[in-house]
Design goal:
Elements (H helix, E strand, L loop, with lengths): L1 H30 L7 E3 L3 E2 L11 E7 L23 H16 L6 E8 L10 H7 L5 E13 L8 E11 L5 E6 L16 E7 L7 E7 L7 H20 L3 E7 L17 E2 L16 E3 L7 E2 L11 E3 L2 E5 L3 E8 L12 E7 L2
Parallel strand pairs: 3-4, 9-10, 11-14
Antiparallel strand pairs: 1-7, 2-5, 3-17, 4-6, 5-6, 7-8, 8-9, 10-15, 12-15, 13-14, 16-17
Length: 356
């Protein structure tokens, strides 16, 4: 009986210590929680030229690089896979491939990048934003945090650990100002302590003698429990682009929308990938008449990460694209054929002309 009582006391002590430790951890995480303002002015780094007139052609590129951790061999535990992070060897190959792809991109006038790590265990604590910025000599750059957690404790068997990530906008032409605009969040405590604080970057470029060019780099919510947030995010983004266009400005919004563009049809895909729709769809009245969905409807841009990528077997879809105001002429959109070698997304390029 004495032995049994001793065992029970030990068990109770362990449970109390564990509970106290977890409470202390939650208190620490709450104190350290990243709580950005609704709108924050961002620092514009680098140089960049003035845009002195309406150029004949402007080029853009958008790419969710998956922090260099979601190349073709990877699956991801959040979406039905098992892995948390790639091996050091795979990460090195993925990120080197991303850097090489950007170097050989032809240096578009504007580059929107999502899921860029700065200080994360999953990417070996490399400042990816600084490394990418370094290869775009003469460009301006703007960075906005959308994921900051001192320690993500899941999965318990191999915690994700520290995460610092965000969006990066690179521009050949220097913005007069840039803002981080927060998307609304519906996550309750304590879940919100370990989830993304999503946002978009709005960059404003003054054009001598013309209206402003307004560029929006966005990364919208993805997970199935975020349906309410996705609806609110779209409403906020729609208001922003409509308000800017009402001022007479040129507006281009692009990035990882985590939803299909309205013209998307799986039957139109010609690259032999297995495709699917994402529900619910973007509301049919999201864009008024004259606005354009700028996307390559024949090639997928994103693959599921519940398994390593296998062409024709792994699910794919289109979620990376642009929305363009009526005073911008779309000259062409091209999805780069990278076969998800380095990221679970493909880069999407676009050429446009601003109407005089």
């Amino acid at each position: 009986m004495k032995i049994l009582k001793s065992i029970l006391r030990i068990i109770v002590s362990i449970l109390l210590i564990t509970g106290l430790g977890f409470a202390v951890f939650l208190a620490w995480a709450t104190l350290k929680d990243y709580r950005p303002a609704g709108i924050e002015r961002l620092k514009v780094n680098g140089e960049g030229m003035p845009l002195t007139g309406v150029a004949d052609t402007l080029s853009l590129l958008t790419w969710n690089i998956g922090y260099g951790g979601l190349g073709k061999e990877m699956d991801f535990f959040y979406e039905g896979g098992k892995k948390v992070r790639p091996s050091a060897e795979d990460f090195g190959r993925y990120f080197s491939g991303i850097m090489g792809s950007l170097t050989h991109s032809g240096y578009p006038d504007f580059v929107f990048i999502q899921e860029v790590d700065r200080q994360s265990k999953r990417s070996r604590y490399i400042d990816e934003a600084a490394m990418i910025d370094s290869i775009f000599n003469g460009y301006s750059s703007v960075y906005a945090t959308n994921y900051r957690a001192g320690f993500v404790p899941i999965p318990l068997s191999d915690p994700m650990g520290q995460v610092e990530a965000g969006l990066l906008t690179l521009s050949r032409y220097r913005p007069s100002e840039a803002e981080r605009v927060s998307y609304p969040s519906s996550y309750s405590w304590p879940k919100r302590l370990f989830m993304l604080d999503r946002c978009f970057i709005l960059s404003r470029i003054k054009i001598s003698g013309h209206a402003d060019l307004v560029l929006i780099n966005t990364h919208n919510s993805a997970f199935s429990d975020a349906a309410d947030m996705r609806k609110k995010e779209l409403a906020l983004l729609r208001k922003a682009i409509m308000d800017e266009y009402a001022k007479g400005n040129y507006v281009i919004a692009g990035g990882d929308w985590n939803q299909n563009p309205l013209p998307f049809n799986p039957d139109s895909i010609t690259d032999r990938n297995k495709t699917h729709r994402i529900t619910p769809p973007i509301p049919a009245d999201f864009l008024p008449t004259g606005w354009q969905w700028a996307c390559d409807l024949t090639r997928v841009t994103n693959r599921d990460v519940n398994e390593p990528y296998m062409k024709g077997h792994t699910g794919t879809t289109i979620i990376d694209f642009y929305v363009v105001s009526p005073n911008v002429e779309v000259l062409g959109v091209n999805t780069l054929q990278q076969d998800f070698e380095y990221s679970d997304h493909r880069a999407v390029g676009m050429r446009v002309r601003l109407e005089r």
